[in-house]
Amino acid sequence: MSMRAFVLLACLAAAPAKANPIPEIICAPTGTMYTRLSREYLAERRGTGMRAPDQIMEIWEAPSTGEWTLLMTYANGRSCIVAMGEDWYNAPKSES
User: Fold this and answer.
1) Kind and range of the H or E element at 27?
2) How far apart are CA 10 and CA 57, in angstroms?
3) Residues 54, 56, 60, CA angle at the centre, nearest 5°?
4) Model pLDDT for residues 17-29, shown as the tens digit of each residue
């Protein structure tokens, strides 16, 4: 994990571990999460998909570094980082 990803996780650790079923998941109000990802880490939302009626998966990427973040956004106004990594690659769309 890069130093930048480590700092992001440390900064977003606002919720106590008991509030999360998986301690590695970091949650914050959606607006706070979006602000930190976009302004502090220059990440852009690259895609979304519904997981359930009240849950949206989002992939964010920082183009300058290739770092990516998988975010689960809930209808209750919270978002949680469920995975992070490096070397994001946008695959070309396949023709059907």
Assistant:
1) strand 26-29
2) 22
3) 155
4) 444 444 566 899 9
The reported pLDDT for the residue numbered 51 is 93
- Other C-beta atoms closer than 10 Å to the C-beta of 34 total 18
Q: How far apart are CA 25 and CA 62, in angstroms?
A: 20
Boundaries of every domain in the chain = 3-85
What's the token pair of residue 34? 């979006």
| Residue-by-residue DSSP string for 38-84 | IIIS--EEEEEEEEETTEEEEEEEETTTTEEEEEEEETTSEEEEEEE
2-52 residue pLDDT tens: 656 555 555 555 444 444 444 566 899 999 999 999 998 899 999 999 999
CA-nearest of 73, 83, 87 to 24 is 83
Cut 0.85: pTM above it: no
